[in-house]
Amino acid sequence: MLTDIEIAQQADIRPIREIAEKLHIAEDELEYYGRYKAKLSEELIRRTAGEPDGKLILVTAINPTPAGEGKTTVSVGLADSLSAAGKNTAVCLREPSLGPVFGIKGGAAGGGYSQVIPMEDINLHFTGDMHAITAANNLCCAMLDNHIQQGNALQIDVRRILIKRCLDMNDRELRNIVAGLGGKVNGVPREDGFIITVASEVMAILCLASDIDDLKERLGNILVAYNTAGQPVFAKDLKANGAMAALLKDAIKPNLVQTLEGTPAIMHGGPFANIAHGCNSVRATKLGLKLADYVVTEAGFGSDLGAEKFFDIKCRKTGLRPAAVVIVATVRALKYNGGVPKAELSAENTDALQKGIVNLGVHIGNMQRFGVPTVVAINRFATDTDAELQIIEDYCRQQGADFALAEMFLKGSAGGQTLAAKVIAAAEKPAGFCLTYADEASVKEKIEAVAQKIYRADGVTYTTKALKALADIEKLDTAKLPVCIAKTQYSLSDDPSLLGKPEGYCITVRDIRLSNGAGFIVVYTGDIMTMPGLPKVPAAEKIDVDSSGRITGLF
User: Fold this and answer.
1) Could you tell me if 292 and 88 are in contact, meaning their C-beta atoms sit under 8 angstroms apart?
2) What is the distance between the alpha carbons of residues 459 and 449, in angstroms, rounded to a whole number?
């Protein structure tokens, strides 16, 4: 069987202007990055602003295995299947981070015969958006440290610096460092650290900003530190936001590529859902809805993370309303939730599947709680047995949830025809839409609403550090901000070992940070890390390039 990269390299890739024509985009509204990639211009966004919106389809999932359950593959395949059904369709996705690409999980361009191409470009450097975000974040950090070095007129307390440098790579060695060593000329010694770029507030801001002016204002509102009097210091106080915005002037524009079957794909932004809000940019989603009748988008990890944040942050802030939701479920992830070790997931185990399937029930219930019509996509793997698939289908019937097999990995759009038909039918149903909590609720009430309604926890406990941070945040004008909970993706709880449907537990909040520019409050639970590490055998060991420039080993 061909690998993902071999399938992608054999594809009949079309010039990007031909893909743009499917969405009625004029050639002078494209900014080319070679023959097969383009930025979508500000002129296009302004021209289409008054057009009616298409239907938005959100793809989410159950709690996954460490390898992921093919949510992006299903998203891409569903878009192709909708296109094959005669619908004018676009898929809106996040950009890959180099962390997972060289780590364990892989890229974010789909897989098999359900991919976005050019796959190598997308997964490795694409149009440079990640690097621009990294540079903008680190410029702010450099200006802050330079301000301290040059006399510290703002009286910044070096023990209360909040912003960290970032890098789009898994590098645990940089999580906690001491900087400024080597004498007076080399800066002020202090504790510092790095986070991965996709966890940075600059990434969140890029994905939530409406235009360049909004971007600049949000960047200026980043809370970077407190001064020695306990007062907040923002990026605008350092006069950093103008230069940061200049670095992001091209990165704020969405990117256009294509699927293997020629469906337009708009890729932009890449926040992780376990440590950030997990959705592609608002600009990309809104533009897609102006250009296509159906827009398929995905939110990271399970519905307890990506979908909750899609609704409670992205939809709350923008007025977006999905017409239907697709929950991706797999036999192997449900067996994993039933206690089967990762190495044994290929063997049939109906008992473990029956035990773990309650996890699917929680995610169905989550989406029903938001009031959006839902379809379960059973993403079929080669090792799935008929008996295992039948258990999932029977369970969906018991839960009153529509379902369909998703076989796009092996069959492309032909493997998603039934799913596409059911999604079209679901999108025509009336949808009542509700959020998890009200704007006016307190921060604690918002956290507890998500913990109890979405995670099914009994309650929430707070460390002393978290309570102190919350007290500082509540002194600022943050009353109506939503919460963005950083939590493990492997469990509904904050403990990755509690699989299935944990009961009788409380979520522990260990820290709380204000992402003032992004417009939400980040709540850290459990042992979640904002700078991942590489596994024992990184995927990078298999990646190579030959003398002709042909890349191998990339999935």
Assistant:
1) yes
2) 9
Amino acid at 504: G
Q: Could you tell me the pLDDT band of residue 104, with boundaries at 50, 70 and 90?
A: confident
How buried is 246 (Cβ within 10 angstroms: 0-12 exposed, 13-18 middle, 19+ buried)? middle
- Taking only the tens place, the pLDDT of each residue in 421-466 is 999 999 999 878 899 999 999 999 999 999 999 999 999 999 999 9
Beta bridge partners of 514: 521
Task: Report phi then psi at 293, rounded to 5.
Answer: -80, -30
* DSSP string for 171-198: -GGGSSEEES-SSGGG---EEE-EEEGG
Is residue 421 left, alpha or beta, with left meaning phi > 0 and alpha meaning psi from -120 to 50?
alpha
- The structure tokens 């650290």 sit at 193
Q: From the DSSP assignment, how many helices (H) and strands (E) are in the chain? A: 21, 25
Chain-centre distance for alpha carbon 233: 28
Q: Please, where are the H alpha helices in 192-323?
A: 201-208, 212-220, 241-247, 282-291, 308-309, 316-318
Work out the number of other CB atoms within 10 angstroms of the CB of residue 1.
Answer: 7
Amino acid identity, position 276: A
Average pLDDT over residues 247-273: 97
316: left (phi over 0), alpha (psi -120 to 50) or beta: alpha
**Other beta carbons less than 10 A from residue 216's beta carbon:** 20
For the stretch 323-335, pLDDT in tens is 999 999 999 999 9
Token couple for 459: 């309650």
Torsions phi, psi of 97, nearest 5? Answer: -100, 145
Residue whose pair of structure tokens reads 């409406």 in the numeric block: 210
The token duo for 68 is: 């992921």
Q: Is the dihedral of CA 166, 172, 176, 177 positive or negative?
A: negative
Q: Which residue has the tokens 């094959």?
A: 84
The pLDDT tens digits of the residues spanning 349-375 come to: 999 999 999 999 999 999 999 999 999
Tell me how far apart the terminal alpha carbons of the chain are, to the nearest angstrom.
13
Q: What is the Cα–Cα distance from 220 to 237, expressed in whole angstroms?
A: 8
**CB-CB contact of 328 with 71 (8 Å):** yes
For residue 505, give the DSSP letter: -
Q: Name the DSSP class of 291.
A: H
Sign of the dihedral through C-alpha 365, 367, 371, 377 = negative
Q: Say if residues 448 and 454 touch (Cβ distance below 8 Å).
A: no
What stretch of H or E contains 469?
A: helix 464-474
Count of CB atoms within 10 A of residue 106's CB? 20
How far is the C-alpha of 30 from the C-alpha of 286, rounded, in Å?
17
Q: Is the peptide bond before 118 cis (omega within 30 degrees of 0)?
A: yes
Structure tokens of 117? 């191409």
Average pLDDT, the chain: 96
For residue 63, which of 456, 510, 411 has the smallest C-alpha distance?
456
Query: What radius of gyration do the chain's Cα atoms show?
Result: 23
Question: Cα dist. 493→335, 475, 505 in Å?
Answer: 18, 30, 8
Distance CA 364, CA 118 (A): 34
Give start and end residues of each alpha helix (H) in 196-330.
201-208, 212-220, 241-247, 282-291, 308-309, 316-318
